[in-house]
Amino acid sequence: RANGLKKPIRWFSVPQLFRYERQQRGRLREHFQLNCDLIGEPGPLGDAEIIALAIDVMRGFGFTAGDIRVRVSDRRVLAAVLRARGVPDPGLAAAYTFIDKIERLKPAERESFFASPEVIAPARVADLEAVAAIRGWPALDAELSRSPASAAAAEPLRQACAALDAMGLGDFVDVDLTIVRGLAYYTGTVFELFDAGRTLRAICGGGRYDGLLQALGGVDLPALGFGMGDVVLGELLRERGLAPPAHSGIDVFLAAVSESELPGLLRLAHELRDAGIRVEFALAMQAVGKQLKLADARGARLALVLGPDELARGEVMLRDLGAKSQEPVAMGSAIGRVRAALATDPLAQQAPVPLTVHR
Amino acid sequence: RANGLKKPIRWFSVPQLFRYERQQRGRLREHFQLNCDLIGEPGPLGDAEIIALAIDVMRGFGFTAGDIRVRVSDRRVLAAVLRARGVPDPGLAAAYTFIDKIERLKPAERESFFASPEVIAPARVADLEAVAAIRGWPALDAELSRSPASAAAAEPLRQACAALDAMGLGDFVDVDLTIVRGLAYYTGTVFELFDAGRTLRAICGGGRYDGLLQALGGVDLPALGFGMGDVVLGELLRERGLAPPAHSGIDVFLAAVSESELPGLLRLAHELRDAGIRVEFALAMQAVGKQLKLADARGARLALVLGPDELARGEVMLRDLGAKSQEPVAMGSAIGRVRAALATDPLAQQAPVPLTVHR
């Protein structure tokens, strides 16, 4: 399949995922996850595109650079600066683990972290602490100046960050080598999104996994992407009052004075619905006053009251439930009048979306 | 919770569901299902509302009464006509099973269906066959005339069908007592949606389950609803060519003549995206001609080409990829010009939805 698709392939999915482990805040046994991947692009603009997408999803919810932060690193950079500090290649994985966990280690636990400290020798724990303390480009540049190999390894990350700057998203991004990501398949850029106050787990994590597709028996294509679950995101949205409101209100309530008006009410109700207007009506005969109480409870702005006298004149009463005013309108123009009244409503929750019906 | 909600409660969910059984066409081990329920309304207008909703979902996809049919029955009616034919109450469940399966039974299998035929005596298999053969109201009315109890039992179904007629949906509805629904919890109306040619399994099934909520330890509220899976529906949509197209095209492709224009390209690309315009650009430097080939492959209508000369004049080249014409536009008015060009495009797939950003 991949061979038939024009590269780069831009891919997303929203699966429901399950974990068999103890639940924690922000990490449930069941969640939905937005996965976005870019397949077939090895260069740093691809990294910038994927990170920009994660940021734009958050901006779409209303978050700013004051609310959320992207912490970005690069496995190639981390390896280079650790090598420059003296960590031998066989010790890199252990050093990654230390740096990944350093924020959760007490100072006293750091010296005893390595059962055999020679695994990172001649580098010492203090070297790893220094690397983990790097924040931002000036500090990283100072570290990179220790070896030309490090400086070269940082070029992709530098270009990705420059592209994010050019997109106007630089404010969201912090370079931070403690972002390691536990998964061994990452080969380059790695990043995580956090709430700025760091009170929650990561909102999103991702990175470049250039060797993974081939390792799993697929095509040999560079790739990168992220996964963003709905659990931490949902907590943050609720915390900030940014959760999109669930609209359950209606536009128009239809009331019949007596059972004889019921067929006319049902016809009009269904025509209004076909016009994309949200309609409800009493499902059992009740006094009009009681029906209009349900209209209020549902948050209806308008009511259409069908009575025998109006119906005999081919009319229906259009009632503004807010203004408590009403006027008779011709049955044939009721939908147009309702639409016009809703269009002038500053509280209208959404524009009607007519049902597209093929007849 | 139910006590705090204004009745009737209108409820829907779209869970992903799993079955542990052998897969068949139209019945997979995993599917999504739209569930719609109406809780707290015992009367036939509630039945009409739920059936109308199922029909309207199908109309929303573009199906007509020539494409899909609603087969509707009522457990109360079936029980009454079977009693009038002589089936004793202890034999009703067995008679339901026979009628439920009759379409799949060969004539020779019918007489031997009941291991003990006396379970339905004094009624005979021929009585059940006669009941199962009833289609439409005239035939049902003839059957109901056998007993006043049957006629009374049919009133709710008659009123629900009359309401569907008044809504303009009567064309979709067939009365058919062979719709039994296997689940024992149904207490009244039962219905299923089928493709008109009956080549597929049911698209949707539902009915009234007035005793179920209390039986499960909840409140004593009448309720009814339906479940509509995505498997048969998906097959039917594909078969009829009604599956909503998956838009993966873009509106504008941005191309840079040389690397120096890249920051300007990235800024403009991101501004266009914030305006809701679908944008792509080459993620690695390539000749403009090669970049525009990707633009064509993505179905872009427009391209914005940034070159050193135009950029020096504060301009960008707006290229109509269909008309193969181009003109320079001021950088500051590029978004407006793109939006205007897309608005006049008869092939435009959708209106831009600007990103709502809180700054």
> Class of the largest domain in chain A, according to the CATH hierarchy?
Alpha Beta
Number of domains of chain A: 2
Ends distance of chain A: 38 Å
**Assembly form of the protein:** homodimer
CATH topology of the largest domain in chain A: BirA Bifunctional Protein, domain 2
The coarse silhouette of chain A is elongated
Q: What's the order of the H and E elements of chain A?
A: EEEHEHHHHHHHEEEHEHEHEHEHEEH
Category by helix and strand content of chain A: alpha+beta
**Chain pair sharing the greatest interface:** A-B, 44 and 47 residues
CATH architecture identity of the largest domain in chain A? 2-Layer Sandwich
The number of distinct helices of chain A, counting runs of at least 4 residues, comes to: 14
The CATH superfamily title of the largest domain in chain A = Bira Bifunctional Protein, Domain 2
What does the main sheet of chain A amount to?
A: 8 strands, mixed
Radius of gyration of chain A: 30 Å
Number of E-type strands of chain A: 13
Kindly summarize this structure in a few lines.
The structure is a homodimer of 359-residue chains. The first copy, chain A, is an alpha+beta fold and 359 residues long.
Question: Descriptors for this entry?
Answer:
359 residues; BirA Bifunctional Protein, domain 2; five-stranded mixed β-sheet; elongated; 36% helix; alpha+beta; homodimer; Rossmann fold
